[in-house]
Design goal:
With 260 residues, this protein is mainly α. It has one domain. It is built from 12 helices and no strands. The longest helix is centred in the first third of the chain and has 34 residues.
């Protein structure tokens, strides 16, 4: 690998880490970069999943004060009970990726991402239809959160790109809290999902370790910086950033899926 390739991967990793810390979806930067360097789609997807995990850990460090605020209002137990759901959903998605052709799912992914952006954009109106989080019974809130996280982590294990957007959108319908705290929980769930994919793909997947090693350092720095930046943005600005990025990512994925 030449110097230009290393610099390209480091730059992509830094940008992806920052985006993951703010909105999620940074894999839409590193995944195409890996394909641009000649990796087949499945190998690029698997390598990308392994490479961005340290950056996800960085986002947890950057947003940990907000996670503490969220947990302090509810206690650790509800969130620790999410761990088996996250692990099981991620492993299911990893298995689907390794045994099924990606074409059909590629056609679905753009609509998932665009739908996630729409959910966040019209959060208040949808809460009127499904019930505001404050009016949900504790049992219904717990079941809904497990269902949302289980489905999204299946997606995360399979493809992963823009999972953070889906996660923020889903959790925003369940949790009655500030968006920055919801993002902090998203960061923690995404990091656990990422760790699970590292184990699964590290054992069974076609990981290109040299490419992954080039991306890792810059994703750590970018993830931390992105999470810190997210704490300083007003909630309205943060929502506009996430919805705009979701629209951009979804449009790109749709174009990539339907082009000849």
């Amino acid at each position: 690998m030449d110097l230009a390739s290393i610099v390209l991967l480091l730059t992509a990793g830094l940008a992806a880490g920052v985006v993951n810390g703010i909105a999620g979806g940074g894999s839409l930067i590193t995944f195409p970069t890996l394909m641009l360097m000649g990796l087949p789609p499945i190998a690029a997807n698997v390598t990308n999943s392994v490479a961005v995990f340290p950056g996800l850990a960085g986002t947890v460090a950057g947003s940990y004060p907000d996670l503490q605020d969220l947990v302090g209002r509810r206690g650790w137990r509800p969130f620790l009970l999410l761990v088996p759901t996250v692990v099981a959903g991620t492993l299911a998605g990893c298995g689907l990726l390794l045994v099924t052709p990606p074409r059909a799912f590629d056609l679905i992914v753009p609509f998932l991402v665009l739908g996630a952006g729409a959910v966040l954009a019209f959060r208040e109106r949808l809460q009127v239809l499904v019930g505001h989080p404050a009016r949900l019974t504790p049992r219904r809130r717990v079941l809904t959160m497990h269902a949302v996280i289980g489905l999204i982590t299946i997606y995360g294990g399979y493809f992963g790109a823009a999972m953070g957007i889906l996660m923020v959108s889903g959790l925003a319908l369940v949790l009655d809290d500030r968006l920055v705290r919801i993002i902090a929980l998203k960061n923690a769930v995404s990091a656990l999902c990422g760790f699970t994919t590292v184990i699964a793909f590290g054992i069974f997947g076609p990981v290109h370790w040299t490419h992954a090693a080039c991306i890792v350092p810059s994703t750590i720095l970018g993830g931390y910086l992105g999470a810190r930046l997210a704490r300083r943005l007003p909630a309205g600005v943060l929502r506009v950033v996430i919805v705009t990025f979701a629209g951009t990512v979804g449009s790109y994925l749709l174009w990539r899926a339907i082009r000849p």
